Amino acid sequence: MKNIVVSDPVSRKIAAGRAELKKNGLFIVFCVILFAGIVCGAVNGSLAGKSLMERLDMIFLTNFDLRCSRGYLASFAASFGSEVLLMITVLLLGLSLWGGFLAAAVPFVKGYGYGLTSGFLYCAYGAKGVFYNILIILPGMFISSAVISAASVYSFRNSLRFVQNFRHQAVRDDPCRQIRKYLLEMLWLLLLCAGASLVDMLCSICFSWIFHF
To answer: Can you give the pTM of this predicted structure?
Structure first.
């Protein structure tokens, strides 16, 4: 009897864990893809020169001199603009029949940009670069990376729904309602990206005066 009492809660927790894993499994996969991008970017960032980092600044926001010296509103706009480019890409991919599979590449690109930045900072500036990464870049990047991964999941699923609607069977969901729901989800995630950029700006306000590159 004691065994039943003890094992039953354990079984429920295991079942709940499996259900949660099944529910969020795709998000976890996309996070793994993002982490793979970070690793690849860090390896390449350790070999990158400053001129290459400046050329990639528009996409990955890697110009540290400007990031530390320009106005904070300009820093917010640059950070948010970088996120908007990725969100627009994810949004459009989710509205096509084939784009869902390409949406998996967006977290990789996001992770690659962060890894490229981190690898360059460490190799070029040592401990100074590591602390810059932790204090200024990492907080906002962590939030925006999770948001981009979630947006890619929504994009992938929405694209699959379009594919299912073209199969020879009755359409269960109203396509207009489906698109409206998808757009609202993306709008909410875009607001979260703005929040991540705000965190990025606040970290710059608090700590950028410490660093000079």
So the answer is: 0.81
